[in-house]
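Hello, quick one for you while I still have it in my head. Could you read through the record and tell me how the tokens relate to the sequence? No rush at all, and the record is pasted right below.
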Amino acid sequence: MAVWDDLTGQDDAIAIFKAAAAGGSSIDPNIARAGNAMTHSWLITGPPGSGRSNLAFAFATALLSPGTPEGDHATQRQVEARTHPDLAVLSTERVIISIEEVRTLVSSSQFSPSVGRYRVMIIEDADRMSERTSNVLLKALEEPPERTVWILCAPSDADLIPTIRSRVRTVRLRVPSVSDVAALIERRDGVDAVTAERAARHAQSHIGMAHRLATNDEAQRRRDETLKLALSIRSVSDAVRTAATMLEIAGADAKAITEERDAEEREHALRSLGVEPGGTIPPALRSQLRQLEEDQKRRATRSLRDGIDRIMVDLLSLYRDVMMIQLGSASELVNVELRDRLDLLSAHTTPAATLAAMDAIATARERIEGNVAPALALEAMLTSILRGGALRKGTIQ
């Protein structure tokens, strides 16, 4: 099986990377944008769930595999385990990537490859670097070692400073189709076709979320509950209560994602420190565990914010469906299962009110991104939707 086989809906991007990986062992920074030429720095952009990171690691595997752009199994296993000696990866579970993390990565990028043609440096979520941190990376991109390849991932090239954008070759991904994502989920996760299609549709082609909805009944239940709550709002007091419930749902979802991983990390840390399960932790080792706990708290904060944002993306899909019905569009609905309730809502509201509801959701997302308390942002959003007429008393039963 080729390393590209588990990627979906990105044939043009895959062709570019396969050609670059097969193009020889030399890198010429002066032809970064020429056809399928290999270059020392790449930026993969695309919407969340389009497969940016998966494509970056597939490209890394092809570059690190001896003599084949299809990737060999041994290298693929090492890349998946992040143990290949010529691969360095920077990802963060926090809100931002720290300047110290980038400095460490830049220092390691100066080493020559030990077993392969290249040394590959991957930064996931490169948009989470501040300008000061980005400038540290910029110096490495301006004067890269001959055999070092940088692969950055971000939602958009506009998320990076202009000087970095001018030094990378950008490959833009598109949103894969629902059918493509469903086929991938069905093949890779072993679920039935109906479940895979529903998950891909509800996830709006977000591959990671589609996997979760297809394989986790609780995640699907929480999504369904969120939309039904939104459709049941009758008054301002309902809006306030619903905002609190949505926050609880996002918290439960975030906890489900992080809890098991946190326990595994702690157990692994204790084992590596030589502490038996249930044993007393020596005072000299407590600082190391405190650091782990602090990292886990930061990850939980990000996971909660991601969960809240996912709720608002689901709400956007709801009002997008209403708008499609109101305008008589033939576009497929995301929430087909709620068609009766969507028909009722679209008949009792106007396209202008629906558009105002979508604007209110976008505003709430911006406010939370700007560190407004999520509870207040959700309350204001739902109240605005109610008062704007996108939900009217007695219309949805």
User: Anything to note?
Assistant: The mean pLDDT is 86. Residues 11-172 form a domain with the Rossmann fold fold (CATH 3.40.50.300). The two ends are 51 Å apart (CA to CA). Residues 262 and 296 are 7 Å apart (CA to CA).
